TrEMBL record:
It comes from Maylandia zebra. Pfam families: Lectin_C. This is C-type lectin domain-containing protein. Transmembrane segments: none annotated. It comes from the Eukaryota. Residues 17-131, 130-204, 221-327 form the C-type lectin domain.
C-alpha cells in the first residue's frame, strides 16, 4: 500500500465524516481512524461524495479508505449496490473486433445474434448505454472511452447500465435496431476499502490520471521525415503516438507546445492499399481533430499536429521534416 512521503490529511467515518488536519501516511491514518472512530472513510454514492467534500471544506487533499491491494482484479458494476455475479455464458471473449485490445472495461456487442460481453481496453471509444432510476435505458450514439461514458451517464442520467437484469433485460433488447457496440457499467480493478467492504463506487479525478499519463509521451526535438520518426520511436520507445480519444489529444497538445517545428508528427498515415487513414497501431480513426479542409488523402501523406492554435491535425507530405512525439508505454 502506498506510503506518502510527506503525509496527507485524512478522513474518518462513523455515519459522519471527520476531517483530521494532521499529516500521516495512509497506514498511520488507517490506524488512527480505527482507534478513535471506525475506519477510514468509504464512499457509497454521489451523495456521499458531496458530504465528503463538505467535510474537507477545501482544506486540501485527504486520505480515504480506498487502497490498491495489488491482487487479482475483480469485476464490478458501476452502479452502486449492484453485485457482480460471475456468469460465463454472458461473455464472449472471442468477440472483440480487430480494433479492440483486451482490458478492464466491459462492452456489449450486438452483431448477427451475438449479444455477449467482452473485456476491452478502457481507452477504446464507442457508444454507451445509460440507466435512469425510473428503469429507462438510453443508447448514447457518441464515441467516448469508458470513464468519459461513466461521467456522462452520472451527470445526465444515473449511471452506466449495470447488472445483467439491465444489460440483458427486455428494455435493452428494445434498443437493438442495428449492429453496434456499446459500453455498459462493467469494470474490474484491485482496489479495496479499508474495512474490507466490497462497494464498487469509484469517482476518480481524471486530471490526476492525465498528469500521470503525461510521462508516457516524449517530444523528440529533431526534425525527421515521418518514416524516420516512426523508426526512431519504434527503436527507442513504443512507437509514434496514437490519439484515440480527447484525453490523449489533450496530452499531445501540451507536449506539442514545446516543439521547435510548426507541426509534430503523430502515428497516423494514409494507407493507399486500404484507402483509409490508420494509426500505426492499426486502429481506424474513431476520434479525430482534423483542421477544416486540411485533410488531404494521398499515398505519401501522414498527419502532423499544429504546434500552436487549436492543435488541429494537418495532412503533411511524408518527406517533410518535423519534430515528433513518441509513446513510452
Amino acid at each position: 500500500q502506498y506510503q506518502s512521503l510527506y503525509g496527507c490529511f485524512f478522513t474518518c467515518c462513523l455515519y459522519e465524516y471527520h476531517f483530521i488536519a494532521e499529516n500521516k501516511s495512509w497506514s498511520e491514518a488507517q490506524t488512527y481512524c480505527r482507534e478513535k472512530y471506525t475506519d477510514l472513510a468509504k464512499v457509497f454514492d454521489m451523495t456521499d461524495m458531496s458530504r465528503l467534500r463538505n467535510s474537507a471544506q477545501n482544506q486540501g487533499e485527504a486520505w480515504i479508505g480506498l487502497n490498491n491491494t495489488g491482487g487479482n482484479r475483480t469485476w464490478r458494476w458501476s452502479l452502486p449496490g449492484v453485485e457482480y455475479i460471475q456468469n460465463d455464458s454472458s461473455w464472449n471473449l472471442e468477440g472483440r473486433t480487430t480494433r479492440e485490445l483486451p482490458g478492464n472495461c466491459g462492452r456489449k456487442r450486438y452483431d448477427n445474434g451475438d449479444k455477449k460481453l467482452a473485456d476491452v481496453s478502457c481507452d477504446f471509444t464507442t457508444w454507451f448505454i445509460c440507466y435512469d432510476d425510473n428503469k429507462t435505458l438510453h443508447l448514447i450514439e457518441t464515441f467516448m472511452n469508458w470513464t468519459q461514458a461513466q461521467s456522462y451517464c452520472r451527470y445526465n442520467h444515473t449511471d452506466l447500465a449495470s447488472g445483467l437484469d439491465q444489460v440483458d433485460g427486455e428494455e435493452m433488447k428494445a434498443l437493438i435496431t442495428t449492429t453496434f457496440t456499446a459500453w455498459v457499467g462493467l469494470f474490474r480493478d484491485s482496489w479495496r476499502w479499508s474495512d474490507g467492504s466490497d462497494f464498487s463506487f469509484r469517482y476518480w479525478d481524471m486530471q490526476l490520471f492525465n498528469d500521470e499519463q503525461t510521462d508516457k509521451l516524449i517530444l523528440i526535438k529533431e526534425n525527421k521525415t515521418w518514416e524516420k520518426a516512426l523508426n526512431y520511436c519504434e527503436n527507442n520507445y513504443k512507437g509514434l503516438v496514437s490519439i484515440t480519444n480527447p484525453e490523449v489529444q489533450g496530452l499531445v497538445q501540451e507536449t506539442a507546445k514545446d516543439a521547435d517545428s510548426p507541426y509534430v508528427w503523430i502515428g497516423l498515415s494514409y494507407r493507399c492499399t486500404l484507402g483509409l487513414w490508420l494509426w500505426v497501431s492499426d486502429y481506424v480513426v474513431c476520434y479525430d481533430k482534423w483542421a477544416t479542409e486540411r485533410k488531404t488523402e494521398g499515398c505519401d501523406m501522414s498527419a502532423g499536429v499544429d504546434r500552436g492554435g487549436q492543435h488541429e491535425w494537418f495532412s503533411r507530405r511524408n518527406n517533410e521534416t518535423y519534430n515528433f512525439i513518441c509513446s513510452k508505454q
